[in-house]
């Protein structure tokens, strides 16, 4: 059985959290595709060429401890605008999406470019303020010394760059279901997503 759930949306909207819990609920595998770009961007901060870094990405690169910082986020969104970088990461993502047993992928171009035939597409959003507050809590909770303004600026810069690029820009697929998590708890957001998947699976 293959079944793909594609989740897209702007930075820190709750894509990864909803994706992880949806995958756990249905027993599917989950891939946070942002990690591929973060790990590539992280390597360019060490002086590596972006395309080479993407082509030679290793599983252990995805486990580096500082991948969630705004600095690495910015590097990720810069390399993500390079078509050859995106190209180098496509096959892995598509193979993951069609693995047997079901898969959830979250990112920016999953429902539009990576998996245009996904059985379920969600576009997860929240207001800038809510997203910045959530990401700040996450970063300070894991010991990073960042300010609300730094986090807000990082999200806004990345969203603008990700939306404006020519290659696979951040966009909702025409057939995506909109999920605004601004006033939802994680449990409410996940319950809404589960109901959408059940609707498709049942019908
Ligand atoms: O993957 P993405 O960057 O879109 O967001 P995330 O990392 O899943 O979520 C960012 C933060 O918001 C995490 O700390 C989540 O626990 C939190 N969150 C929340 O408080 N309420 C939601 N409905 C969804 C996420
Ligand atoms: O967690 P957050 O939403 O803050 O970011 P992320 O999902 O980890 O993605 C980091 C950056 O990678 C984004 O700002 C995009 O530039 C890029 N990205 C992308 O271009 N395409 C994807 N499918 C996933 C991430």
From TrEMBL:
Keywords from the UniProt entry: ATP-binding, Cytoplasm, Kinase, Nucleotide-binding, Transferase
GO MF term (any one): ATP binding
Top-level EC class as recorded in UniProt: transferase
Source organism, top-level taxon: Bacteria
The keyword Acetylation appears for this protein: no
Gene Ontology process terms (BP): pyrimidine nucleotide metabolic process
EC numbers on record: 2.7.4.25
TM annotation in the entry: none
Binding annotation for ATP: 9-17
Domain Cytidylate kinase, first and last residues per copy: 5-198
Entry's family note: Belongs to the cytidylate kinase family. Type 1 subfamily.
Name of the protein in its database record: Cytidylate kinase
Species: Pelagivirga sediminicola
Lineage, top ranks: Bacteria, Pseudomonadati, Pseudomonadota, Alphaproteobacteria, Rhodobacterales
This protein's encoding gene: cmk
């Amino acid at each position: 059985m293959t079944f793909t759930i594609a989740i897209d949306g702007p930075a820190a909207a709750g894509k990864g959290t909803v994706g992880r819990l949806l995958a756990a609920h249905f027993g599917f595998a989950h891939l946070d595709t942002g990690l591929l770009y973060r790990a590539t961007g992280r390597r360019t901060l060490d002086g590596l060429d972006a395309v080479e870094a993407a082509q030679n990405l290793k599983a252990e690169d995805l486990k580096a401890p500082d991948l969630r910082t705004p600095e690495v986020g910015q590097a990720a969104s810069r390399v993500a605008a390079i078509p050859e970088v995106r190209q180098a990461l496509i096959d892995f993502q598509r193979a993951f999406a069609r693995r047997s047993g079901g898969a959830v992928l979250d990112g920016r171009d999953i429902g539009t470019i990576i998996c245009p035939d996904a059985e379920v597409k969600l576009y997860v959003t929240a207001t800038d303020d809510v997203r910045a507050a959530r990401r700040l809590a996450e970063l300070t909770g894991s010991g990073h010394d960042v300010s609300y303004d730094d986090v807000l600026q990082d999200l806004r810069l990345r969203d603008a760059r990700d939306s404006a690029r020519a290659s696979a820009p951040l966009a909702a697929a025409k057939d995506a279901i909109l999920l605004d998590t601004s006033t939802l708890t994680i449990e409410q957001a996940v319950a809404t997503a589960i109901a959408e998947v059940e609707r498709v699976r049942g019908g």
